[in-house]
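To whoever is on call:

I kicked off a structure prediction for a single chain this morning and the downstream step that reads the tokens threw a length-mismatch warning. I double-checked the sequence; it's 159 residues and nothing unusual in it as far as I can see. Pasting both halves so you can look.
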Amino acid sequence: MATDGFTTCLWFDGQAEEAAHHYLSIFKDSELGRIGRYTEAGPGPAGSVMVVEFELNGQKFIALNGGPQFTFNEAVSFQIHCADQAEVDYYWDRLTEGGEGVACGWLKDKYGVSWQVVPTRLIEMIGDENQEKAHRTTQAMFGMKKFDIAELERVYAGE
């Protein structure tokens, strides 16, 4: 069976195009695709935006103006792996504008979409074979909203 990867569909209540442009402004490696509009067949008003295709860091998305029936929740989130504190700060700050930080690197953006802004170094630290180091780091992680890599490194080192 041949496949061309997959596309994540995000359901919005009238903000699909706005949201797509918002995400495109945040992710440097991004691209806008086609915009499909409702026809007289509905269910949205003829000429209004139905779907917006876009790509963020190689991941394909479709934003759908589906209506108020469904909303986002924390059961699904998108992880952003960050190389350093500058990247953590950048994505955290941009995605929490109009949204909110939650816990352990998780946040909800202004559309209610959940994201995890995670330093790649954290994955290494909490996965360390030295259980004492991994435990200390995990405990520190639980106390943070936005991750502070220097503090996590300090705790990991036992300082």
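Update from on-call: the warning came from a stale cache, not from the record. Cleared it. Sanity check on the structure: The first strand starts at residue 7 and ends at 12.
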